[in-house]
Amino acid sequence: MNQQLAGFVPTPVSARMENHGKTMLKVAMASGQDLYARTGSMVAYEGFIQYEPNPPAVRQIASQWISGEGAPVMKCSGDGLLYLADYGADVVVINLDNDSLSVNGTNLLAFDAHLTWGVEKVKGLAKFAGQGLWNVVVQGTGWVAITSRGTPVVVDCGRGEDETYVDPDALVAWSPNLKLKGKRSFKAGALIGRGSGEAYQMAFSGQGIVVVQPSEDSTDRLRIRN
Asked: In this structure, are residues 136 and 109 in contact, taking their beta carbons and an 8 Å threshold?
């Protein structure tokens, strides 16, 4: 093999999910260990892997996931290595240990099918922004992969008594046990977010983490406009 390409060869499998570089996810697939992944995220695979787009179980759980074409999730099963990516976004791998994570649907790349999950409406923001915000809550013990438009910052909200404020369009994920409320600012429009006029932030408090990406991604975020 050309020595210039040798550095890009996958390393031996050491975990169910792991990064291959910053922007690609490698999943070790095995019979009986199914995976849910974002539709269209497969970039390569080795072995025998089957795909079922928008399976019935997903349609039932994500009936409120409004996209016009059903839930953008496919079920992956089989044996081999599966490689996933999302338009060059950074991939962050998380191993949940009887824990839970609330993830913006746009940033959810893949998760173990045996995990409990569902689409939930985020409370405390609609009355400020005039719209609802829906996130995917994943819980249990297993692997989850999320994406970030650039290297994210993980804020530990339990380090102090002050609230943590986040632009909703830069929010990736957070601990569901955090307290959340919306905040309206009339003077921060030029400082927070890309819009003008009023600015809206999400205020987090309590024990937990918030994952924020260095990009305000205003694409489909499971919002339902009134």
From this structure: no
The secondary element (H helix, E strand) that includes residue 45 is strand 42-53
The owner of tokens 């955090």 is 178
pLDDT at 65: 56
Q: β-pairing, 116-122 with 42-53?
A: unpaired
Residues 116-145: b if buried by 16+ CB within 10 A, e if exposed:
ebebeebeebbebbeebbbbbebbbebbbb
Q: For residue 204, give both structure tokens.
A: 């987090």
Would you state the structure tokens that stand for residue 169, as one six-digit string?
């369009």
Lowest pLDDT segment from 13-17, 132-136, 206-210: 132-136
Contact 187, 216 (CB under 8 A): no
Both tokens of 183, joined, read 């905040």
User: Which residue type does 58 have?
Assistant: V
CA–CA distance from 50 to each of 80, 199, 203 (Å)? 10, 45, 42
Q: Strand pairing partners for 122? A: 133
